[in-house]
Amino acid sequence: MRHSDPTADDITTLIETQMHLEGPLLPIFHAIQDACGFVPESALPLIAGRLNLTVAEVHGVMSFYHDFRKTPAGKLVVRICRAEACQSMGGSALSAAVLDKLGLDWGDTTADGAVTVEAVYCLGLCACAPAAMVGDTLIARANVPRLERAMEGAA
Questions:
Q1: Maximal C-alpha separation, the chain
Q2: Which of 3, 90, 145, 149 is most buried as measured by Cβ atoms within 10 A of its Cβ?
Q3: 3-state secondary structure at position 12
Q4: Is 103 left (phi over 0), alpha (psi -120 to 50) or beta?
Q5: Mean pLDDT over residues 13-25, rounded?
Q6: What's the chain's average pLDDT?
Q7: Distance from C-alpha of 143 to C-alpha of 127, rounded to nearest angstrom
Q8: Is 122 annotated as a binding residue?
Q9: In the chain, pLDDT over 90 holds for what percent of residues?
Q10: Is the pTM above the cut of 0.85?
Q11: Does the annotation flag 128 for ligand binding?
Q12: Strand extents, DSSP E, 45-148
């Protein structure tokens, strides 16, 4: 079902798999995103109804956490650290160059669905800043050529 439009039955099944947990809202979001690649807007009323919450409450929680997507991500996700250590070591210029090169803003996906660029707030490589992640590969002392090589290798 990944990166497809899930049915209401698909979403309901995913919701039910998490209902045994205490505080199941975040695990429900994770289950849906893991299965579908994103949390579709159509899932919010189903989640709200099952948890006896308002759609606004469910939406508020989802929008608070940057890891949850409303639309499918590109085939390759590039994350660039925006925390202070990385910014102080050139992360802002790196971000600007990558976004400009791809013609994107934060969180956007290229028109062909190939690449999504996301901001993250620490990848744990502060001593080797700036840091980025291409797919599942961490990149220390990131620069545009390193990111380009990693993106080519991941394609």
A1: 50
A2: 90
A3: helix
A4: left
A5: 96
A6: 93
A7: 15
A8: yes
A9: 85
A10: no
A11: no
A12: 76-81, 115-120, 132-134, 137-139
* Residue 34 pLDDT > 60: yes
Q: Is 86 annotated as a binding residue?
A: yes
Contact 56, 25 (CB under 8 A): no
Is pLDDT above 60 for 30? yes
Q: Which CATH superfamily is domain 76-154 in?
A: Glutaredoxin (3.40.30.10)
Spatial CB neighbours of 40, under 8 Å, sequence gap ≥ 6: 5, 6, 11, 32, 70
Structure tokens at 66: 């940057």
Residues of the chain with CATH 3.40.30.10: 76-154
Tell me the average pLDDT across 51-74.
92
Cα-atom radius of gyration of the chain, to the nearest Å? 17
The size of the chain, in residues, is 155
